[in-house]
Every structure is written in structure tokens, then in C-alpha cells.
Amino acid sequence: LALTGVWLALPSFCGWPGCLGTAALSGQSRIALRFRSGFGSMGGHSNEGSGSSGSSDSDGNGLGDESDAYYDGYDGNNLRANEGNPNHPSFWKKLGIDHRPDNWKAYVSFVDDPIVMSDLRRQADERPDDWVDPATHKRRRGLLEFKINQAACRSKEERKAAGRDAVKVVDAAKKALGGQAMVLKNGSQAKKTDLNTSDLDLKIAGTQMTSQTRSLLQQELQRTFSGKVEVTRKGILRVQGESGQLCIVPMRADFYDEEFEATIRLGKNDFEQKPEARKAVRAVKVKLQEAGVDVKGYKVECAVQKAEAEYPDDDFYDLARRAMDLLGRERK
Ligand SMILES: *[C@@H]1O[C@H](CO)[C@@H](O)[C@H](O)[C@H]1NC(C)=O
Ligand SMILES: CC(=O)N[C@H]1CO[C@H](CO)[C@@H](O)[C@@H]1O
């Protein structure tokens, strides 16, 4: 495969204006509301019993599926049974304690002790609404990790198809732009923040593109990807390849607006030394995909970056939750 250079990265480029912070995230409040509620079951309380079992799954995000198994065969809809079962949060809720205590077994024999109970009540009150006990957190984290690995996985055939697509682009670029043109793999695939449904971003370096040379390249691409090549609003080429959508992005072009040009040149891999943040990006993408919501990859990356800057010690799971909140809040 004739891809050269260091494989650095930027988010997906098709229609991509760059990491522009708050402004870039506005205007999608409807979506935000949907996935905020969807994320409730990833870190929220809808799985914690309280007679509302199943509510998390109505979002279609699937992460609530294990809750019944977790409570060892207790029927999630049977509030009375749950209230008699100290393993279940409903038991504690009935005592006015909003979360099942961490070491609940130790407290079972103290349920009649007003001092102990009021202390537990106070502790539970001080917890954030989305607090979950460590065991639940760990289990959900593991489940999400499994999903991420699955959603990021490409079959050998798919990888080969992407390789064939890239070779065709390299050939077309050489023919249309001359030997000095280089095709570089950029974007979420290079960055490892992609899912198996992500676009393949290919950058053209070594030449300054004009609308004329872009037309040449477009014609050349038409030969191999006939009828499936278009120019986007930002002036980049979008191709429906064998492996999915390809975004072909000149590194320098005289038709870019200043802002777009700046973001393209900026390109550095912010996720290189940050495996948790990288995984968080994929986690958020998985959640959005499950909710059937389409959000640009760069927005997800920006949100995770922001969360990571503020909470550098968070694991991917917490970063993903914060990023979801950020995306939600900023869409108002
Ligand atoms: C691609 O991701 C989906 C989940 O989003 C998964 O079901 C599928 O198996 C993945 N493809 C491959 C080849 O693993
Ligand atoms: C933004 C961007 O395009 N990032 C990188 C893509 O790949 C080339 C070559 O490796 C890098 O120089 C860019 O910084």
C-alpha cells in the first residue's frame, strides 16, 4: 500500500469545520436530549431498581440489559419483592436511602437503628445523582469496553477493501496531480478513535490544490469510482468507496476558507498518548450510534478533549459520560 508519511490524525473531514469549541457544538439540542437520557443507564440510576426497571432500555441503548441478572433473579417489576431484598436498591429506598450502601450487607442488621440509618441517609444524599456503586460501575465499564472493541473491529475483508480504495486514490492523485502529490492517511482511523462505520480520511500533501486541479482529480477518481464522487461545501472530495465513505482532503488549497485551512494545518494527534480519551471517543460514538444519532466525529473528539483537560485522571468511562454531558449542555 503506497501510503506514505507518519500517520497522524485529525477527526473525520467530510464537512468538517474543525474543533471550534462551543460554537461548533450548537444547534442540535433535540439530539442532545435524546442521548442524555440514553446515557443515564451508562452511569445513571435507572438501573438501580426503584421499581422503574426497564426504563433505561426504552432508550434503546442496551446498557441496561444486565440489571435484572445482577439482582439475582429478583423480578425487576416486582417492587414488593425488591423492597424485601436488601441486595436491591428498592429496599434502601424504602428506608429513605437513595442509593444502596456500598457495604450494604454490614448494614442489614441495623435497619432498625435510627442513628445508623440517618447516617446512611446523609451519605446517600451527598452523592451525586448519577452515583453508582463500584461493582456496578465496573460491570458497566466492562460491558461498554466489550462493545467498543466490537464496534471498532473491522474484518480482514473490510480492511482489504479500504486498502484497495486507498490504492485507487493514490493512483488517481498521481495521475491528476503529478508525482509530487502524496496521499496520507489521516483522521479517526489513523487516530484510533474510529468505529468500523467511520469514514476513511485521506489527505493530499505535496501540492497546492486549485479548483482546476481538483477537477482533474475528480475526473480521475470518476474513472474508478464512477458516479460516486462529489465536492463538498468546504471544497473537499467525497467518494463512495468499496469500503465506505472516503474523504479526500488537500492539505493546502486556494479554495479553502481561512478557518478551515487553519484547522487542517493544525493537525496533530491529541490522542496519541491518551488511550483512555481515545477509548472515550469510541465509547461516545458507540452510544450515539446505538441511539441512532448522527454527530460529527470531531464534535465528539472536542467534547472528550475538553472533559479530559478538566479531569485528566478519569478513566474512559467517566470521560465518556462527561463528554456526553458536555455535548448535551452545549447544544442548548
Ligand atoms: C462492526 O461493528 C458492529 C457493531 O457496531 C459489530 O456488530 C460488527 O461485528 C463489527 N464488524 C466486524 C467486522 O467486526
Ligand atoms: C491534520 C493532519 O492532517 N494531520 C496529519 C496528517 O498526516 C500528515 C503526514 O503524516 C501530517 O503531517 C499531518 O499533520
Keywords:
332 residues, binds 2-acetamido-2-deoxy-beta-D-glucopyranose, alpha+beta, single chain, 4 domains, Beta Polymerase, domain 2, 14 helices, five-stranded mixed sheet
Give a verbal description of the structure:
By secondary structure, this protein is an alpha+beta fold. The protein folds into four domains: 1-72, no CATH class; 73-125, no CATH class; 156-247, Beta Polymerase, domain 2; 273-326. The protein is built from 14 helices and five strands. A five-stranded mixed sheet has the order 1-2-5-4-3, with helices on both faces. α1 (29-43) runs antiparallel to α14, α8 (156-177) crosses α10 (211-224) and α12 packs across α14 (316-330).
Residue stretches low in confidence (pLDDT < 50, at least 5 long) are 1-12, 15-76
**Which ligands, by name, code or SMILES, are bound?**
2-acetamido-2-deoxy-beta-D-glucopyranose
**What is the H-and-E element order?**
HHHHHHHHEHEHEEEHHHH
CATH topology tier name of the largest domain: Beta Polymerase, domain 2
Largest sheet geometry: 5 strands, mixed
Helix content: 40-55%
> How many distinct beta strands?
5
Structural class: alpha+beta
Rg, Å, rounded: 24 Å
* Physical arrangement of strands within the biggest beta sheet: 1-2-5-4-3
Tell me, briefly, the overall form: elongated
What is the level-2 CATH architecture name of the largest domain? 2-Layer Sandwich
Mean pLDDT: 77
Report the total helices: 14
CATH class of the largest domain: Alpha Beta
Oligomer: single chain
β-sheet strand percentage: 5-15%
**Structural domains: how many:** 4
CATH superfamily of the largest domain: Beta Polymerase, domain 2
Signal peptide: 1-21
Keywords: Signal
Region (Disordered): 43-67
Biased composition (Low complexity): 44-60
